[in-house]
Amino acid sequence: FCLSSAIIVYRLPWTWKCSKLLMKFIHAGLNTIAMILAIVSMVAVFDYHNARNIPNMYSLHSWIGLTAVIFYSLQLFLGFAVFLLPFAPVPLRAALMPIHVYSGLTIFATVIATALMGITEKLIFSLKNPAYSASPPEATFVNSLGLLLVVFGAFILWMASRPHWKRPPEENAKVLQPIGGTPEGTEAESTMAGGSNADKSDLRINSEAARKQNLKLDEAGQRSTM
């Protein structure tokens, strides 16, 4: 749930007017909470297996689950280093953004698959009389839970892949300017009554360059789904 919330946090219309820096911290915070919960659950699983003398890491569920946790930790680390901290150059952010988005969605789908395999495995081991094949109420309940997980995962992936759910660029495009400056040079041009046409042309060119530079920054580092 925390991972899915982190994926769609940029795609909720009521967040589009919030500052992108705030949304980046919320995005990173939700992913951090999900990572902490994943580590706690992994420790609990290994402790339970060791206490019951159950072999560790023998099932496909455990293999895929551990793989998802490892790649998720790498995703979180690279997300902090490249997109949250202000040290990575813009070309690097632009190059890594598609990989960051794709890997985040892939990890989420893998987590859904791991959960489905885990609840099925638990039913097979736990239901003896009546057996899982006899479709007792517990089996019906957990199978229904599995279907809900599939629907939930599909809905999150649908939201993350629809262009109209993306944060609108016009909400993000703010021209780079000094403190006390005026946006896009419109006010500045209107106050230059005594200035020459060349000065006004230079101002428009500078404003256009600043706008393009900021749009590149926005595309590279702000529309991520970790």
UniProtKB/TrEMBL annotation:
Protein keywords: Cell membrane, Electron transport, Heme, Iron, Membrane, Metal-binding, Oxidoreductase, Translocase, Transmembrane, Transmembrane helix, Transport
One cellular-component annotation, GO: apical plasma membrane
Membrane topology of the entry: Multi-pass membrane protein
UniProt-listed InterPro entries: CYB561/CYBRD1-like (IPR043205), Cyt_b561/ferric_Rdtase_TM (IPR006593)
Cofactor(s) of this protein: heme b
Enzyme class: translocase
Keyword Nucleus: no
Enzyme Commission number(s): 7.2.1.3
GO molecular-function terms, A-Z: metal ion binding; transmembrane ascorbate ferrireductase activity
Sequence intervals crossing the membrane: 21-43, 63-87, 99-119, 139-160
Highest taxon above the source species: Eukaryota
Domain Cytochrome b561 positions: 1-161
Reaction equations catalysed: Fe(3+)(out) + L-ascorbate(in) = monodehydro-L-ascorbate radical(in) + Fe(2+)(out) + H(+); Cu(2+)(out) + L-ascorbate(in) = Cu(+)(out) + monodehydro-L-ascorbate radical(in) + H(+); monodehydro-L-ascorbate radical(out) + L-ascorbate(in) = monodehydro-L-ascorbate radical(in) + L-ascorbate(out)
Region Disordered, residue ranges: 176-226
Major localisation: membrane
Subcellular location field: Apical cell membrane
Quaternary structure note: Homodimer.
PANTHER family assigned to the protein according to its UniProt record, in alphabetical order: CYTOCHROME B561-RELATED, PLASMA MEMBRANE ASCORBATE-DEPENDENT REDUCTASE CYBRD1
UniProt-recorded name of the protein: Plasma membrane ascorbate-dependent reductase CYBRD1
Organism: Podilymbus podiceps (Pied-billed grebe)
Gene: Cybrd1
